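fold-stage: in
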Amino acid sequence: MTRPLIGFSVPRREALGKVTGQARYVDDLKLPSMVHGITVCSPAARGRIREILYDKRIPWHEFTIVTAEDIPGKNCVALIVDDQPCLAETVVNHPEEPVVLLAHRDKQLLEEARRAVTLDIEPLPAIFTVDDALGKKALVWGEDNVFKTFLLEKGDVDKVWSDAALIVEGEYETGAQEQLYVEPQGMIASFDPQTGITVWGSMQCPYYVHQALMQLLDLPAKKVRVVQAETGGAFGGKEEYPSLIACHAALLAKKSSRPVKMIYDRGEDMAATTKRHPSRTRHRTAVDPDGKLLAMDIEFVLDGGAYSTLSSVVLSRGTLHAAGPYSCPNVRVRSKAVATNHPPHGAFRGFGAPQSIFALERQMDRVAVALRMSPDEFRRKNFVRQGETLATGQVIREPVNLGQLLDRAFELSDYHAKRQRFAHENQLSEVKRGIGFATFMHGAGFTGSGERYIGSVVSVETTAQGKVKVLASSTEIGQGTNTIFSQIAAEAIGIGVETIEVVQPDTSQVPNSGPTVASRTCMIIGKLIESACTSLRQTLHQGGFLSQKFSEEEFRAACRNYTREHGPLKCHSEYAPPPGIYWDDQTYRGDAYAAYAWAVYVAEIAMDTRSFETRVTDFVAVQEVGRVINPVLAAGQIEGGVAQGIGFALYENVVWREGRMVNSQMTNYIMPTSADLPPIRVYFEEIPYAHGPSGAKGLGELPIDGPAPAIVNAIENAILVPINRIPATPEVLMEAMENAFV
């Protein structure tokens, strides 16, 4: 038996390949006779395609040209609602919508050819704001421009208003945000009439791509193979979009009878792919004279773009987090995702929660001001505690002490002393300093019945070399999946991580363990791996191949001997919900998530009232995430999420013009660099979760939720002017301050 592995910072399993250049990303891969593919996209936000014109100066006979009429199956990108075409056929509904595909061996000539295709489009009325969508200024989707609605109710909100000591209203907006992964989107496809289609690419969810290709090409599952190449970041941006580019590469490969590589450049990637949903949230909050919450009435609206993609599930998570970690007897959340003629918005780390939590934590500070109460005192009065219920009626069964997290965060940040000192110093300085915080939670795993519906499966098996293979479709995208899977598997068996081999996701080899999203990889899939590995060890022992106590070499010998006599020992584990978990999809009530991570983040800022520029000067992140599997990887997840949250709060402004992103370059889409970031001080509280591997919960999405409200609360503390939309760019702050002093 080896020393314990959980709680230790085992080196990353893929690190050597990445730092030596041996790791093979999709653009590193080359196949014989491979050609390159590109997309010709709509310049119009909405319109009817009248004609496709090809400039005669281009030798078109050398090209493979694909349009919608070349699709052998269903012209859609299979996901939740099959409303998005793979290629527009008669109408376009957003700028950058794919219409024509081209392939050629010469990349330079291919670019010339793209510019030589003209799409003659008759303009149709378009929608660019949620107000115009809700007002049906034009109907651009269905009968009412609404992709999805939810109604979450607890108690009776309407009976409370007349008895409230104070009612506070607020409206808050968040903008779109680009995922900005290091490696742009890319796919290679190869088609064989006998064996079918194989694609290799940068992705999060191989089985999403698998399903999309089956429908598009009208092929059975056994004739579709999807292989994840090394993936350079994703953050949700490679959840559903890779299905589209895989479909494009596959169509070109089928028609050309050659392998086709499609790699987006940065500008194309930023302009065409999905982003975080812009949002608008309206709050109406009632409190009693002592500051106890009586009612929260919340309206939450997302701009979903032109097609539904993942808007329904993003809306769901945003809805369920909209009332936060507070105990309130009466809650109503009415939410909608609406259609506009922007490119479709999709998954981004946090998945709707950053938008609704920003609004909630700004509203909590606003209510505290109206009560003439400190923001921390107001929250302490209303924190949910073990045995109390959240907005869905879910009883909190696990231990939770947000007050303790708040105490620790305040001690580490010196919150109270700085708040007092800054108030004094700001009277004499043009650079105003402030400190603010946010208290929040994030549910791990899919919402409600989602995990039961997916029914994730993992497998482990012995090899003739005396090792154990872990087979799952969960992808390594830079977050450390392969490392923590190795630690979990090795700990369950009692061996070292060197004896564990995590198989690269390939749908011809690994079972469907669901997508790599929703803070589920460690808690859900890791638990299945732990269970399967425990079964494998027990089977070897019961078969007489392994004693109760064993060395590493004895275990390897047992694997070799079993495999030689019987073939690989294979053990499977399928998801089953923890006992006592119940969710009603119709009423939207019950246990929304099996477990939550809890956090308090404190931000310190300096804002120059001459330039209206804001810098975050210190950041403290305290969270309870169950048992920490790998401290270095966990801290890295928090630091990365906070960095993205700082960009969301202050810098990353997507500029739209007639539905098109006009700042789709790194020169004018401003994201924080390392020079713009403060020290990010990360601290963990550990309360083991009984149904996670070694007590772990999910943590990947949590750190994106808290930075924006903490930062904007700090800005208001500094300048004494409310800021209700982000990103809080200098222009936004200048306008707010000018309006405040008119």
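fold-stage: in (second)
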Amino acid sequence: MIQIKYFFVNVYIASTLATAAILFVLKNLQFVFGSSPPLLLFLSVIAFAAWYGGLRAGFFTTMLSAAASAYFLIEPYDSFYIASSSEILRIIMLVSVGAIFSLIITLLHNQEKRALQTVMEREEQLKQEIAKRNRTQAERNLYISLAKSSTEFIGMCDTKGVPIFINDAGLSFLGLDSLEQGLKTPVKEFFFPEDQAFIMEEFYPAVFQNGRGEVEIRFRHFKTGKALWVIHNVFTLKDLNDKIIGLGTLSTNITKRKQAEEALRESQMDLNHAQAVAHIGNWRMDICNNRLELSDENFQIFGIPKGTPLTYQSFLDCVHPEDRLFVDAAWKDALTGKSYDIEHRLIVGQKVKWVRELAVLEFDENGSVRGAFGTTEDITDIKSSQEALQHERAFLRQVIDAAPSMIFVKDREGRYLLGNEAVAQAYGIRPESLVGLTDENLNPNDDEVTRFYQDDLDVINNRKPKRILEDKLTHADGSVHWYSAVKIPLLDDDASCNKLLGVATDITDRKRAEEALQLADRRKDEFLAMLAHELRNPLAPIRNAVQLLKMKEASDPTLTWSRNVIDRQVTHLARLLDDLLDVARIMQGKITLKTERFELVDIVNNAVEASYPLIESRSQDLIISKATTPQWIEGDRVRLAQALSNLLNNAAKYTSEGGKITLSTMEEGSNAVIEIRDTGIGIAPDTLPHIFDLFTQADHSLAHSQGGLGIGLTLVRQLVEIHGGTITAASDGIGQGSLFTVRLPTLSMDSTASKPALPESELPISQFRILVVDDYTDAAESLTMLLQAEGHEVEMANCGIKAIELAQVFHPQVVLLDIGLPDLDGYEVAKRLRALPETRNTILIALTGYGQTEDREFSKSAGFNYHLLKPLNFEELSTLLTTL
């Protein structure tokens, strides 16, 4: 078409040039042709144009020749105006003849051209048919060769679906062993069972109708039965008469692609599921086209129907109004290269969601910003949890700040990680200022700082709690406070420990109360000691006077009775004082036991001996039942005898005259059992549980008041329990008597009894120079008379200075020294006597009303050899003197 177009253009150009040439000849040779040039000379050019260019070219040349003639050859020249009618006729004749001539020439040329065309077309047809036959054979051979060597599935079948050709690749692809097997298998069987109906009933009919078709379908592997995905490209096969004789296919194996697509689809589904589970979606913003693409989860997060077209503005519309300026500014900053990692709110329906968005820029091949790819995470739950956690932290902060105790957390270096208001107040700073500081930064007391840090390390290193009962802390204002603290290790996930929790309660008030109580208790002890001393002082001369009376024969029975009454009451009063002081010492843990091994019968005999005068004075019967087998006890012989004696005295006091008291000993397993039963007033049921309490008496009525302080049974229980034993009380009620049962552990091995001491009357009596020092004149004089009656040489002094002076002259062998003297106390006198050469080896005996443990220790440290209590038991003193 382009060549034909160029040919006609050339004809027009040639015609124009030829017309111009004739015009030039006629114009310049008018002298030959005269004033009327022969216009028909243009017919030669018109004939040329019509022959080669057709009717339009002839008409064009005719009109061109007429116009040129009128303009250039007919007067007036250079104008289309024609003045002469004859000239007009000449022009009309030129146009008419030229048109007719063009039509005739064109008809003649077309007729010749058609004839020639017919001959040429036939010749060309013959050539094409020959070439086609040759090409068809060559192509057939080529196609067969290509089909056999192709790695794609190539096959052909007839219109009934019977295979007529399958290449080697197709046979291998389908798992067919031979071409023969393949040609015997209907095409329908090549496909997966689920796809056979579609292929035969829908797809192939459409191919027969349209000439070709393409579909992705599954073939069946004949050996494994697996599905094989292919692009099934099918076209119709026609014979030379253009009749459809079958179908051909070029099928491409896309199984791996399908598997990859399936894996990709599953991966995408997993990604969608992961995003749904994690509430994280992704998005892409195309800033060139203002197009925002969201993942499925992002549509869900934003509450927008899936597939909705979105722009940047539609995104901003979803942002909470209060956050829009912030988000827009962050996005604009991100487009300049800054980080885009923000948290903001969305309005989704009537709800508010919190999201976190991150993005990275994307660039085109020229390095220009194309947009960004980002993620959106729904952090509403996280924000809710954070807010709840913040509320909880604020609440816990209020709780620990409201707690009066100091609550703190420290690390291994002693730095505060947390401290409540109580800690901050103690150190005079705000709680938030505590973090990062140590006790060394806050406390100027180095000893306290060192002790606190060592306790902290012990807890962290040992990973065990530590309770500190008392610890002092100097506050910022200089005041000293006492705390009871507990420190607990805080373990990390790997069970290591690098910090601790501490709780310290201010016990300053309690400490002061305890100190006040201790002071009061100490003053009470001092009062009791002073009371005992002051009461013992008047008792001493009374007892000494009674002892003197006993040395004289009394003929008057009334005088004898009076002497005995005084003796018993003095002894009773002394015992009351001993019990009062013993209870105080035992309850304070200050009593010291002198343990030894002895038979149970020994303390029973001693107790009976001590209590029998009271029992006898009330005309009561004492029945003693002893175990036949010796029972050995380890303990303080004197204290246990004292306990049994108190029980016998108690039974005697609360049993009417003429009553009966029974003392029985027996053995139960590894215990010795002592029962003391009486027929006395009994014990009321409401009193029985408290019978061993301090200051409790069985009978408070005036009619049965037997005196006493109500401390005897308390003392008994304490003495029995410190020996590892028990005591119980039982009674059937008022008037039914009482039963006290003592159980003491016995020894598993036998011990031999020590030889009994000689009776006092058989002990030899030595004569001594004795110095009596006492400011209480009656006591000093009465004791002096008793000692002189025993044959001793006695001197007397009423103060410490006189005693020291007299000792240097008298050279006493024994000094009976009172502790409470008016000038120097007995301890100081004893120290000075020990410093004198005359009395360095003198026996010093403290004779005092102070009988507590610390009093005995003081006397020992001062140099005393013995410590005796007032009122003095003269028989005890006589026995002591015989051992010197």
